[in-house]
Structure formats: C-alpha cells, structure tokens
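User: Okay, second chain of the day. Same drill as before: sequence in, structure tokens out.
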Amino acid sequence: MPRACWIPIFVGLLALTLGTGCNGSTGRFDPDNPDLADAIQLVMPRELRVEGFTKPVSFIGDGSADGLEAVVKTLDYGGDPVKSVGTFNFELYTMRMASGDRLGERLAVWSVPVHTRDQLESFWDRFARFYRFSLRIDGARLKAGRYIINAWLVLPNGERIFDTGQFEFNYEGQEVPPALAAR
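Assistant: Same drill. Structure tokens below.
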C-alpha cells in the first residue's frame, strides 16, 4: 500500500484516540468516595526492602567510607515496586558476632522527608525503580566489618513499614566510590 494511503488512516485513528480520551473529568477526587479509598489501598506501599546494593561511599572524595548509600524499595500488595511519600528513616549499627542480639554500636541515624515532587524525583531511580539515599556519617569513617541497617518508612497516614539489611565492608586496598550527591 502506498505511503499516501496510510496518512488518512493514521489521522483517523489519532482523532478517534483523542476523542475517546476526553470525558470532561476535572481531575478532582471526592475524599468520601469508598471506591477511592479502595483504589488508594491498592497502590499504597505494604513492604519496605533494603536492597543488597546498599554500600559505603565517600562524601569528601578521598576514598574513605564517610557515608552510606542506602538503596531501598517500596512494594505494593502484589510485590511490585511503587513510588511512596513519607519520611524514610535509617539507623546504622555495627554487627555483633556470635550473639543473640546482633545489634552492636549505633553509628548514625538519619531521617529523610520525601513529601514533594522535587524530593521524590531526587531520590527515586526511575530505571531501577528504587530509592537511593546518600547518607553522610558525621565525624566518623566506617572500618572494615559487618553492619546492620534498620530502615522504616512513616507513611502520610501514620503507618510504618520496616526492614533490616546487612552488608559486609572490606577495604581490600580499594577506595570506596564517591557519593552520588550530598543529600
């Protein structure tokens, strides 16, 4: 079929698509609508997961571990990654070996609000579909060893979701990567 014959078909399909997409909706939501509450519950995060990509980083760029890049994922009811707003909180501990209580010394605590579009875009990795937080450890450097990171997200409705991750850090003569951004 000649190219000229496709043009009217394309224009017709485009007009049909645009015409059916307009329903006169104002985009406003009725907060008392039970269907809206059910829909929101479907897309709200149900699980927080500290990913294995969490690692020490260097904020001052000298290769020493003076920070942590925490990588976390929020998942909906079906286990799919979703964007979330709220306050992300982190605690970093040394790991106590051969003990019933694995939490050793608490090294740092961070609280990172993610409530605006700019904040969401600065931490969300669109390609990988997880959050990446560069967290500075004030006045300290991580030594080679094993660590525990506790993470929790406080959602706008007050609910909290938690996870705990572990990582091992060995210098082995290599510098740690620089922090992506000082946040």
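Helices lie at 3-20, 34-43, 117-123.

User: Thanks, on to the next one.
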